[in-house]
Write a structure and sequence with these properties.
- The complex is a heterodimer of chains A (291) and B (398).
- With 291 residues, chain A is mainly alpha-helical.
- Chain A contains 12 helices and 2 strands; from the N terminus they run ααααββαααααααα.
- Chain A has helices at residues 2-32, 39-57, 68-88, 97-117, 142-164, 166-176, 178-183, 188-210, 221-235, 240-260, 266-280, 286-289; strands spanning 132-135, 138-141.
- The longest helix of chain A has 31 residues, at 2-32.
- The two termini of chain A are 34 Å apart.
- By secondary structure, chain B is of the alpha/beta class.
- Helix content of chain B is 43%, strand content 20%.
- Chain B has helices at 2-24, 42-61, 81-93, 106-119, 153-163, 176-191, 210-219, 230-242, 260-266, 288-299, 305-323, 329-337, 393-396; strands at residues 29-35, 70-76, 99-102, 123-125, 141-143, 167-173, 195-202, 223-227, 249-252, 274-277, 340-343, 346-353, 356-360, 365-370, 373-378.
- In chain B, strand 3 (99-102), helix 4 and strand 4 (123-125) form a beta-alpha-beta unit.
- In chain B, helix 2 crosses helix 11 (305-323), helix 8 (230-242) packs parallel to helix 9 and helix 11 (305-323) packs across helix 12.
- The longest helix of chain B has 23 residues, at 2-24.
- The chains are: A mainly alpha (291), B alpha/beta (398).
């Protein structure tokens, strides 16, 4: 029983961070109808920003939450404005050539970072990196709990933005029906730029929160792109509430799989769930929540 | 105007591509080297490439191969067997290299070895350690480094003479290298009448190894043997420290556990950890210490067995090419099989033993991390400092 609870705790904590990263991709999916395959790579760039701030200015990774996500927001807006938007105007054989573009952007980001920092593995060693506290016989890793808490706060902030502010409502309107939104005077072009920026910022926040626990190197992004993709599909292609549950489900499934099946099959567990959801629940988890 | 610029740009690019291949390569001997330059194993590939380049400069400065310059063409295997395969094919068909070298990850090396054998081109492996690479009776595939079954030989005597454990837990990365290592080590344990309480694989690149380590803790073994690349190794040790997992000894099976980055990333959790290793700079091989110092001076980085393997492999390649009757693959294969030379990595001679052929046979060693420094501790006569055992983990991790 103790092992089960410990596993569950670990799964939920990491699931919270997955959810935050996955939310970014879901948001982009919802508004632009494309899968952002550079998502993990954007997260990687943010992790390097955090790392540089820590290494050279001694800035605690959590303070970087005020710097890395805004920086990635700007990068995201720039990418959308100058690299993705122009593609909309070109007719091509493949209707969704923006997706291919994101793959390219991901590669360029990875190789640029490799050019600057080489393939060295880096990690941020804070005084609390390995700190733990015990509740009963369950051990809680401090930075993991912090990451979960902050991820939930940021998610709540995003929901407030989407539900209560005018701009947020415009984002949702554009996601629901772009043409109608434009007729009503919403600047759809700006909204897509904003959304891509926001998505990148969410990934950035996730990466920054992971850094005290994890490590980084130029290729750290790809597995997270895959995870976000699974979460997006689990949640039901563009449903933000679904994505949160998707993230938690993925985290818990990976963790339980590692304990009770085999850690060697950790990634396979995520994929099996992915397939099961596609077969039995094609609409994703959002069909269960009715939101 | 725009078109004009585009033309100029294209022409310049074309020049860059064409000039070196026609002007610089006159009369050089081309050898293809396949290493990971991107992907998760890129760090290791970088160390090996630097060593290859160092050796190449020295070889060419000393007159090259029979008056001709030696040239290494590097290809990136990205740490994926399918890419490694096409990289090898490209080197053989397009660049027309006379032989292949390199080979880091076992899975990639195995793929390249297959291509080399099919095309009847000699391939000298310098790191890929899975036993089966030289167990296929492939007469064009040679291996400089020890096979994975030999990694824990020093550990074996250390366990029987010093630790005298009862139980062992094995954790391994689920790749060719990891699973064959764990299989071999399990057999070693059975031979020594040790109980293997756990033998489990994991997927590399995990964030949280605690589910796995909790299970180890419940099994409470005397020895924890881990086969991991760099960052998994750091995380495994850090999280073991968090969970206060305290076996008699932690032992790494080479790979990630001997790199300076391991201690950089794992911090105090790396302290007192043992690892199997294939080479150490103070071993009485001619040039070993000089190579280590030169690498350190050039790259501001201390080097472990990976670099030494690559460096020596470059010399073995040059030596084989010098003695070959012609640059025909069969002549090179012939002269490679007659190799008998001393390198910084140890004496090189390709023999058949156990089920392997064309395999170099060398002893292995045990190292221990002490206060951020890697020290050779076993076998006793080669040790640089005495081993620390028993270990009080409470004190080490404080």
């Amino acid at each position: 029983m103790e092992m089960f609870i410990q596993t569950l705790v670990a799964g939920i904590l990491i699931g919270g961070v997955y959810a935050l990263i996955g939310l970014g991709m879901t948001l982009i999916m919802g508004v632009m109808r494309i899968i952002n395959l550079a998502h993990g790579q954007l997260m990687m760039v943010a992790m390097y920003i955090t790392f540089v701030l820590y290494e050279f200015l001694g800035l605690d990774p959590y303070y970087s939450l005020l710097i890395a996500p805004p920086a990635l927001f700007l990068l995201g807006v720039t990418i959308q404005k100058y690299l993705l938007d122009p593609l909309l105007k070109i007719d091509s054989v493949i209707p969704q050539n923006q997706i291919l573009m994101t793959v390219g952007i991901g590669m360029v980001l990875t190789e640029t970072i490799r050019f600057i920092f080489h393939s060295d593995y880096k990690s941020v060693k804070t005084s609390y990196s390995s700190a733990t506290f015990m509740i009963g016989s369950i051990s809680w890793n401090v930075p993991m709990v912090m990451a979960f808490g902050l991820a939930m706060l940021l998610t709540a902030g995003l929901f407030f933005f989407l539900l209560k502010t005018d701009t947020g409502k415009s984002v949702r309107a554009t996601a629901q029906n772009k043409d109608a939104a434009m007729i009503l005077g919403i600047n759809a072009e700006w909204i897509t730029q904003l959304t891509y920026g926001l998505g990148a910022a969410m990934a950035a926040a996730g990466g920054t929160l992971l850094l005290p626990i994890y490590y980084l190197f130029p290729d750290v992004g790809a597995p997270f792109t895959l995870k976000s993709f699974i979460i997006t599909v689990l949640g039901g292609m563009g449903s933000t509430v679904g994505a949160i549950f998707g993230g938690l489900v993925l985290g818990v499934a990976e963790s339980l799989g590692a304990t009770y099946i085999s850690m060697a099959l950790k990634d396979a567990v995520g994929m099996v769930i992915f397939v099961l959801v596609l077969v039995f629940l094609p609409g994703g988890l959002k069909t269960l929540t009715k939101v | 105007m725009k078109k004009f610029f585009r033309c100029v740009l294209l022409l310049t690019l074309a020049l860059f591509v064409l000039v070196p291949s026609s002007a610089l390569c006159q009369g050089s001997i081309k050898v293809g080297i396949i290493l990971p330059a991107t992907g998760e194993k890129a760090k290791f590939g970088e160390i090996e490439k630097k060593s290859f380049e160092m050796a190449l400069e020295e070889i060419n400065a000393a007159g090259g191969v029979n008056g001709k310059q030696l040239e290494f063409l590097y290809e990136d295997d990205t740490g994926r067997p399918d890419v490694a395969r096409s990289a090898a094919e490209k080197l053989l068909t397009k660049d027309k290299v006379v032989m292949l070298g390199g080979g880091y990850g076992s899975s990639e090396t195995f793929a390249v070895a297959g291509v080399a054998q099919q095309n009847r081109i000699p391939f000298l492996v310098n790191t890929g350690a899975d036993n089966k690479i030289t167990e296929m009776k492939w007469d064009y595939v040679f291996r400089l480094n020890q096979p994975v079954s030999d990694y824990p030989i020093a550990l074996e005597s250390f366990m029987t003479d010093v630790v005298k454990p009862q139980t062992v837990a094995i954790l391994y990365e689920n790749t060719n290298f990891g699973s064959s290592s764990s299989r071999e080590f399990q057999q070693t344990c059975e031979k020594l009448k040790l109980k293997v309480v756990m033998n489990e694989g994991y997927q590399s690149g995990g964030v949280d190894f605690k589910p796995l380590l909790v299970k180890v803790k419940q099994a409470n073994p005397d020895v924890v043997y881990m086969i991991s690349y760099l960052m998994d190794a750091s995380l495994l040790m850090k999280q073991s420290m968090e969970l206060k997992l305290t076996p008699k000894i932690f032992v790494g099976g080479g790979a990630g556990f001997t790199l300076p980055e391991f201690v950089e990333n794992a911090g105090k959790a790396a302290n007192m950890v043992y690892s199997a290793t294939l080479w150490y700079q103070t071993l009485p091989y001619p040039g070993a210490k000089e190579y280590y110092d030169k690498f350190l001076a050039r790259n501001k980085l201390s080097v472990d067995y990976h670099g030494a393997e690559a460096y020596s492999s470059a010399y073995v390649i040059a030596d084989a090419l010098k003695r070959a009757k012609s640059s025909a693959p069969d002549d090179i294969r012939e002269s490679l099989s007659k190799t008998d030379m001393k390198t910084v990595f140890g004496p090189v001679k390709f023999v058949a033993y156990d089920k392997m052929t064309n395999q170099n046979k060398l002893p292995t060693y045990l190292v221990q991390w002490k206060a951020g420094k890697l020290e050779l501790v076993w076998p006793g006569q080669t040790a640089t400092t005495p081993y620390v055992y028993p270990i009080d983990w409470e004190k080490v991790w404080k």
